[in-house]
Amino acid sequence: MLKVANYLQIKLLIYNCLDSVSRKYSLLVKVDKTKVIASDGIACRILIQNELLEQVDTFLTLGP
Description:
By secondary structure, the protein is α+β, with helices and mostly antiparallel strands.
């Protein structure tokens, strides 16, 4: 099992990669429509294009 500090560092690395790769390939992430959910219940701050993503408790899914 990962230690909490390592787990948070890994999450931060993934989010930073998402931001840098989307910029590299000119992919537009619609920050106002993008939400984040933390399955472990720990609040997180995720920045994409220098904007904070909204954290939610649940998602509404429209498909199977």
